[in-house]
Every structure is written in structure tokens, then in C-alpha cells.
Amino acid sequence: MTLRCRIMDDRDRAGWDGFVMAHPDGTIFHRAAWQDVIHTAFNQHPYFMLAERDGQICGVLPLVHMRSRIFKRNTLVSTPFCVYGGPIGTDGTVTTALIEAASALMRKIGANAFELRTIAPDLATSDWQAAPAIYDTFRKTIPLDDEACLKAIPRKQRAVVRKAIDLGLTSTIDRDWRRFFHLYAESVHNLGTPVFPARYFRLLLDCFGNDAEILTVFDNATPLCAVLSFTYKGEISPYYAGGGTAARGKGGHDFMYFQVMRRAIALGLDRFDFGRSKRETGPHKFKTNWGFSPTPLGYQYLLQPGAIMPDTNPLSPKYQRKIELWKRLPRPLANALGPIIVRGLG
Which of 101, 164, 181, 346 qualifies as a cystine partner to 251, CB 3.0-4.6 A? Predict the structure, then answer.
């Protein structure tokens, strides 16, 4: 049977998503919807590549050509703005064919590098370079009972959650991306990070439908913090979160993640993906304090001759002064400039 690789078109969408759903390594970040989200929100060019035998899809590899003059970036990525990516196929021959086809695409479009975001670095050959060991991911099974889930949280964090419950904090599930954006924008500005465009969150909710939702925590009628989560294949992934300073003193974020766990239980989901965090950072410590064990992410690069590995890590010393300056910008100005900058990060 003939194996060939080609770029996905609109007629392939149902087959693509069906393959991702059926494949044990398929994640929410392999879904076809990312093609529309990334192109519309960030104006970056997607090349979602599939492999087929006799007209049947047998492998997929979501790709986006990320370009940025600000960061001197010209990289083919699987998948930007996502934790995971890389090829999935019915066998090693398929994944190898997808990698080779994508490598040829990198040369054709003039990209300097090809980045794969995989959980395990088992695809690299001698031509590939491992990315610096920056990120860990945090995933585990949770009990299918609210009380058992609460007891499974380590004692110190559990006490914060109980305090928030006693304070009378509440939560709601909806799709109010405007309210979410306000909380998220405040949070990232305090960190000195450029904010995503508001339309990005609207697109995530529109394109992923019932597999995306927002949970917001309230103190009486005041929103404290919120998180946009994905649900897929038995797993919930609280992916984007934000909140004001008032949330910290009331345990708002701890309460919020416990409510996400309760939401997973209500939906019959038993796995919790806490996403990736950079090592030696507050979020990384926060997740380990919740009883999650870090798993290194095996990101890797194929570089064109003479090219250097892209560096968009905000912990890099060259960005520290810029981060401090960004924190001082008026919020409206930061919200206006942020989307221009962040489109090249991903």
C-alpha cells in the first residue's frame, strides 16, 4: 500500500479529528481546530500535514510556520501555543515519513528551524538537537469522588482550599470570554508578560465548542480569578488562568483548581493535566505542592546549516530588563501592544 504525506484540506477535518480521537497519543493539541485558531488570532501560517494509505488517514502532524521580526524567529513548530505536538501515526514508518515531509517543508518555505513538542524525546536522530531542559508537565489520575479528591491534595494546600470554602467563595461555569480576558490580562501584566488578544480566547471557545469552558471564582459578586479549561478523552486541562491580587489572600486560585477537579468528576473525567511550567518558577512549585510529579518535556529542534536554536524563554537574562519595563506600562497600553508581540512567541 502506498504511503503519502500531504497538507490537510477542509474535506479532511472530520477524518483528521477522528484519527486523533482514536489514537492513544492523540491530544487536544493535535486537533484540527488549532489551524483556524492560530491563523485567525495570530496570522501565522499553518501547514497541517497528514499521512494516508489508500485514501485512509494513518498519521497526522500539526505544523505552523512561526515568524517574528521582534524575536528573529522563522521556525516551523508542532504545535505553537500548545504544550504538546509532534507526529502520531499507526506505526513508526508513518511518523518517520511525516517527519521527513515536514523537514522538506521547512527547507521549501525557508524556515531556519523545525521544533517538535513531544512528551518523550524518542523521535530525534543525530541531526536533531534537544532543547534546553526548561519545561516539565504535570499529569495524574484523580479520584472520582469530591471528598476523596480533596483528601488527596497535600495537607498544606488542602488547608488553603478549606479556608476558601469557609470564606464562602463560589464558582460558575460559562463562556464569558470578556470577563475572563480582564482577569487574565491583569495577571500577565503583573508578571511582565505580553497579553494574548482577547479574540484568541473567543476563538478557543468557538472552535472547540463543548470541549472548552471557563470556570470563574467569585467572592460574593466580585470575580476573583478564572481559568479556561479543555476537556478531551477523559482528561481536563486547565490551560489559561488569571486573577487579580485579591484572589491571593482568599485562596482563590487553590479553590479554583479544586473546583476544576470537581468539574472533571461531574463530567466523568478521571485525569487532570496541570499543563507545563518552567523549572525553578512559582507555578512549578505550586503544582508540585499540589502533589503532582513533574515529567520532563522532550522538545527538540532540527536546524538549518548555520542556524541557532530560537530563544523565546522569558527567564533568559536578555529579557529581564524588558519584563520589568513592561510591568510599568499602563494596562491599556500593555493590552494594545501585547497582541502584536505575543503572536511571535507561541
Answer: 164
Domains of the chain in sequence order: 3-131+298-310 (3.40.630.30), 137-296 (3.40.630.30)
Q: Which residues of the chain have pLDDT under 50?
A: none
Inter-helix orientation angle 252-266/155-166, to 10°? 90
Place of cell 470541549: 211
pLDDT digit string, tens, across residues 102-128: 999 999 999 999 999 988 766 556 788
Determine the Cα–Cα distance for residues 333 and 335; give it in Å rounded to an integer: 5
- CA–CA dist 280, 102 (Å, integer): 33
The pTM of this model reads: 0.93
1 alpha-carbon distance from chain centroid: 36
CA pair distance 150, 136, nearest whole angstrom: 24
Which pLDDT score, from 0 to 100, does residue 69 have? 86
Cα separation, 189 vs 264, in Å, equals: 29
> For residues 75 and 44, what is the distance between their CA atoms, to the nearest angstrom?
11
Grid cell listed for 155:
495537607
pLDDT digits over 50-89, tens only? 999 999 999 999 999 999 888 888 999 999 999 999 999 9
